[in-house]
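Lab notebook: predicted structure, single chain.

Context: the supervisor wants predicted structures on file for every construct in the current expression panel, including those that have not yet been purified. This is the next one on the list. No modifications to the sequence; it matches the entry in the shared construct table.
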Amino acid sequence: MNTLTLSLLSFLPILIVAIFLVILKWPARRAMPLAYITAAGLGLFVWKLPLNQVAAATVNGLIVALTLLYIIFGAILVLNTLQQSGAIRVIRQGFIDISPDRRIQVIIIAWLFGSFIEGSSGFGTPAAVAVPLLVGLGFPAMAAVVAGMVIQSTPVSFGALGTPMLVGLGTGLSGDESVYTYIQQAGIDGATLEYVGRPFVELIAQKVAILHAITGTFIPLFVVALMTRFFGANKSFAEGLRVWKFALFSAFSMTIPYVIAAHIFGPEFPSIFGGMVGLLIVIPAARAGWFMPDKDDIWDFPDKADWDPEWTGLASSQIDESNLDNKKAIPLMLAWFPYVLLALLLIITRVPALGVNTFLQSFAFSWSNIFSSDVGTGNIQLLYSPAAIFIVVSVSTFFLHKMDIQSYSTAVKDSCKNILKVSLPLLVTVPMVQVFLNSDGGLAGFAKMPNALAEGVAELAGSSWPIFSTFIGGLGAFIAGSNTVSNMTFSLFQFGVGERIGVDPSWIVALQAVGGAAGNIICVHNVVAASAVVGLLGKEGLIIRKTLAAFVYYALLSGSIGYAIVWSGTRGWLNLGSLFSVLIVVSLVAFVSMQLRQDKKGAVI
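Prediction complete. Output recorded below exactly as produced.
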């Protein structure tokens, strides 16, 4: 079977998702079983996988889904605990004191706080923390999820203390003689044939940080523009774009220290450092009124009675503070302390030098060779999971906020009810992903489906590959739900394509990592998980439709910049990539200017 035919067949499960989930707006619980049947059918009858391997991948998917539900339960429990203690009301008032403007709030919480949490923990934790916090502050559930997904781009490559770099690229590139030869010829220390070594990963990470910093500049602006367009009374992009000064200021406050950290401290710290420094800069600046909207331009959502029913979830309906009027007031610092404790515990348990991670990871179990296949679960670490930290924070809040047993019992019961209602979408989504990823080793001798798909794209793209490389990285994350897995799956393939077309392959690998991060914006099971935290059932396709433009922008601009860089030596800087990059940025600036001019003209009239 030729490469292009095999590539098209590999694309079928993704096409099913696009048609039924995104275009026809089916809920994930209905669309994903069709995608699973398609992937399993291709595996059995085209790839000729043994039945036990497909069954093992399915079971592994169910186990992965249960570990995700464990994290979701912990996140819901923290939200419900803070709601019952009255802390959410105090936190909301604290943000109103900074600014009652929802545009300012979403940038601070989703972009800056979310980046810090991503750097600390990764693996979807920002959505599990920032999204319910936004809902607790009065955001519609869908608006919170859209914001949480769009910021899952710039910080993701350095999430969980650099795991997508150190583990994803480090593992994906290791054991290949051509990579080892390249490293030796480049004079980079630390590599062996079995492992590429930290210095090479650090070199790629620096390139990744630069690409992210350029492309991520507009992400806060995307967040506010999408929010006002889809969830505002006037359905206006312009209302979000009015805060462009604050959005760009917040972007640079994060991305500049982010790049510095990548070059000085290594892959573990860019997102943590960028998010933390950004918060320390932006919050005082907002209090001082820097770059803030005029006092007569305070933007808020419509009255809750006027919200579209599609915007709300189970958590939204539960945030009713009328039953909390009898709660005693909590000082602002004490109300915030559970989130401070959460951040501290995430860092303490994930910094290798402290040794806590080794202890927690020792409590693990795995299931290798499921059903006598090559598929295994890997180590399942219940104590190392962010869920365990969520539960510790919830229990600590019970004592810190001096809650009564009845209130805490209500929080636990509500969390249990919610997790049962939202579990089905994940239980049908992740098995399809695992079948797709574990489709190698069949009697047909084909490469596994993700690689077969990528080979077809590479054959069509030729020397234009750098522009497409980010989309392949994004596709890997869209399927797998992980930048780390995308990098492990495609980094060696991307390196090889870079060598074949005659450009620096380390830049192509960097583009893979950036695209893999951007893919989290539209990743199905990340959307399902984030929606589940706030009880938003059956709206996954609508969310992806709202975030798709942000992903296309991110992958296209970073790919175009990458093309300009890798071909600059032979084709000069005035090449297709630089022209595309300028065109994209100019188009964005022109769109913003046009929207603001129309908005100003409408205000005058």
